[in-house]
Amino acid sequence: MDVTPKRKHSEVRLVAFDKEMVVDVFNQHALSTGTLIAGTPFNNACISLGSTFPGTVMASLKTPQMQGRAWELFDANHDGKVDIEEFITGCSQLFSPETPAMKSFVERLQQGIVAAPPAGQDYSWVKSVAIVGAGVAGLQTARHLSMAGLKCVIFEKSTDVGGVWRENYADFGLQVPKELYEFPGFPYPAGYKWDLFPPGPQVELYIQLYAKEYKLYDMCRFETAVLALDQNQTKPGWKVKFQKKGETAKEEEFDFTVVASGMYGWPPHLPVARGSQKFKGEILHSCTFTDRKQAAGKKVVVVGEANRRLTMQ
User: In whole angstroms, what is the distance from residue 152 CA to residue 130 CA?
Assistant: First the structure.
């Protein structure tokens, strides 16, 4: 489905806010009620904004992960719909952010604007790779790049591999049979107890065994947080600023960087619900609800996925 604006602006490289063009995008995707709703209508409007304003932070609105966050900021009064004034204001704020939340969002969008490499680009000069995150994505990346002869360093701020499988909400685990969640060529090893739907600790053990099997632990720097990634200005590559727990920050150069921190990074994002400021109880994100004893003797309302509701019954 083509969701680019009907007006032919694609040849123009815009670097400034243009209210008229923003209104065009809104009118293309708004419902008969004169509003945008969450989901496909708003997401398609974001894609159109990215096509209309290439070379700006708008371009990153084509990324699905950014569209959900944009919705929360555009829906200023949290009534579940975005009218024309909210849409114009939200777009204007992307060019000149004023609130802390919008400034933070714009920074994330700016980080997402990365030019695609030319077709057939030669990467033979790459010898060293920094990988941020020792979850399932980071570990697989390290294994395959090291098989290609590259030196890999995995930066992990926690104490072990596994990412979200190292610890998570109370009673977490796989929602599918284990055969549908395993590393290619590495089935769950014999000699261990594996449930059909393994709970979190079993999945974490499986990931640890994978890391040991392929000597990925040797590549890990645990309790080490990445503070900044900066491209070299005089040659290809990246400067990685990092800090190991209890030590001063350091910097190291790499030819290539892979960010594998995933979508569940810290801090957790808590959507703002209407009337939440009047709620007298405690509001927790699921990732901080690590022990069901936290809810002992309390009346609990769970907002979110069905599997998390069932674990509390």
Answer: 6
Cis peptide before 199 (omega within 30 of 0): no
pLDDT, residue 309, reads: 42
Pairwise CA distance, residues 36 & 79, whole Å: 11
From 129, 133, 126, select the one nearest 221 (Cα to Cα): 133
Q: Which domains does the chain have, with CATH numbers?
A: 19-112 (1.10.238), 128-259 (3.50.50.60), 276-310 (no CATH)
Distance CA 42, CA 33 (A): 14
Percent of the chain with pLDDT over 70: 87
Phi, then psi, of 226 in degrees rounded to 5? -85, 120
Instruction: Output the pLDDT for position 122.
Output: 79
Claim: this prediction has a pTM higher than 0.85: no
3-state SS class at 37: coil
As a whole number of angstroms, the distance between CA 57 and CA 165 comes to 33
- What tokens does 146 get? 């090291």
72-85 pLDDT tens trace: 889 888 788 899 99
Residue 99 has pLDDT above 90, yes or no: no
Burial of 102: CB neighbours in 10 Å, binned 0-12, 13-18, 19+: middle
Burial of 40 (0-12, 13-18, 19+ CB in 10 A): exposed
